[in-house]
Amino acid sequence: MVVVSKQALSQATIKRIPVYYRTVKDLQQAGVKRVRSDRLSKLVHIAPATIRRDFSNFGDLGRSGYGYSVDLLAQVFGELLEVHSEEQMLLVGCGNLGRALLTNNFRRNPDLTIVMGFDTDPQLIGTTIAGVPIFDLTTLAQNIRPGMHTAIVCVPSSAQTSVINQLEANGITAILTFAPKPVPAKPTTTIRYIDLTSELQALLFVDHQKQVARQVTEPLR
């Protein structure tokens, strides 16, 4: 088995790796020993050809007629995602979206856990949401745990820059934010912007294109 470096992978493949990992971990827990690309395709909603092309980046993971070893896939993708230990994260912004994330708290992936939240709302500070304590954002430096480097940001765009600056000042280097406007950050900081409106528009566009294509190929009655 040969695993290529992350730098050699396309961004599209990198985005699919967590989906593959979560699915093969579910299969592993269900006692499944091997899986073919066509079955995996139905589980992850990714074309079998795309799955086989992605997997070819990682050496000889399977063979024709046999499929892929679930244990091997879990090992390879786990190493790529560096899930050797639990990733403890903090969340800034405990409004409706933040509350939903805290309540769900990555239940399908035990390697990811939000362990504390921060907000500026006096009604939230000092409470707990789904067992997660909520602190005053001004006390971030006092409450952040040693070794934490990941944060999720659920604040309005107007507050995003100051929040990210505060996170960086306290050693946070990986940030997922739901405010889509890019902000200046340190070269050592990795930020992923989630724009739900753009994602939905892209989804609707692709769906529309599929419907148009289906209508064109349907035989006249």
TrEMBL record:
Which Pfam families does the entry link to? CoA_binding, Put_DNA-bind_N
What SUPFAM superfamilies would the database entry show? Answer: NAD(P)-binding Rossmann-fold domains, Winged helix' DNA-binding domain
Keyword rRNA processing present in the record's keywords: the answer is no
Keywords attached to this entry? Cytoplasm, DNA-binding, NAD, Repressor, Transcription, Transcription regulation
**Binding annotation for NAD(+):** 93-98
Q: Which InterPro entries match?
A: CoA-bd (IPR003781), NAD(P)-bd_dom_sf (IPR036291), Rex_DNA-bd_C_dom (IPR009718), Tscrpt_rep_Rex (IPR022876), WH-like_DNA-bd_sf (IPR036388), WH_DNA-bd_sf (IPR036390)
DNA-binding region located at which positions?
Answer: 19-58
Where is the protein found, in the record's own terms? Cytoplasm
Q: Subunit info?
A: Homodimer.
What family is this protein classified in? Belongs to the transcriptional regulatory Rex family.
What this protein is reported to do is described as: Modulates transcription in response to changes in cellular NADH/NAD(+) redox state.
Its name, as the record gives it, is Redox-sensing transcriptional repressor Rex
Q: Which gene encodes it?
A: rex
